Amino acid sequence: MLSRTYRPSADLAPYIRRFYVFEAPLPDGVVVEDFLLAETAFVRCLLRGDWSAETRPGEWNTAGNIVFFGANSGPLKVRVKGGFAVTGFAIRPSGWHALFSSPHNQLADQMRPLQELWGELADRMIAGVSQAVDDEGQLAAMERCIRERLELFPGHLPDPQMAQFEIIARTDSTIRIEDAAGQLGLSVRQLERRCLAAFGLTPKAVLRRSRFLDAATALRGFSSPSEIELGALRYYDQSHMNREFRRYTGMTPRVFSKAVTPLQTAGLKLREESRFED
């Protein structure tokens, strides 16, 4: 499986965290079941393959070939059959209101055709991406449509306080909510309201998920030894760590460390690559 990520152009960096391309040249008939745990909302363009997600217990849906995913509070089970290719982009919470008319918490944990949110612009995006012959062309098609979308909300600039909380969540996931609010010059109530609108979740839920992802990244060997040691200290004891891993993966840490989860692994790599960029 091949995974590639790209930074957005400078003018889109306040709104888009990363673009990604993921290809899996699997044999026909091979079924891969995995899960996603996205920190941000993202858009996925399906260029080839049979891809679905479990939207309700036992109910699998596709939502079309260009799909919006809200940020996840828990694991989203996904299934692919045979080879597939996808491309897309992760959306910065601090840029949410410049791209969407509804608060993020109304769309968190949802998978919807992008057409429901962006109308015919979504059709033009998937058409442009499908016609591209390489990664550069795909990125250009997506960036072109994102810029058109931004023109619809000219007064909605990136939120600097939510941009700062993005950094806090990615680099200091054990911080107290009161301390984070203080750093941002907000009350706890203000931080919660702003987080729900931009991140889709409460500050507590954002930090809890980030702490788990820190530990998962360490278990997968994507962090330095010092970070692995620190990751082990982020839970009170082994039973606490087990509970969190079961919550977010349905597995114990030991089982997760050996599990084959190519899609989630690609997400962890993307997270680690961009974690300290801000």
UniProtKB/TrEMBL annotation:
The keyword Transcription regulation applies. Pfam families: DUF6597, HTH_18. SMART domains: HTH_ARAC. This is Helix-turn-helix transcriptional regulator. InterPro entries: AraC_XylS_family_regulators, DUF6597, HTH_AraC. PROSITE patterns: HTH_ARAC_FAMILY_2 (PS01124). GO terms for molecular function: DNA-binding transcription factor activity; sequence-specific DNA binding. Residues 161-259 form the HTH araC/xylS-type domain. Keywords: DNA-binding, Transcription, Transcription regulation. It comes from Sphingorhabdus contaminans. It comes from the Bacteria.
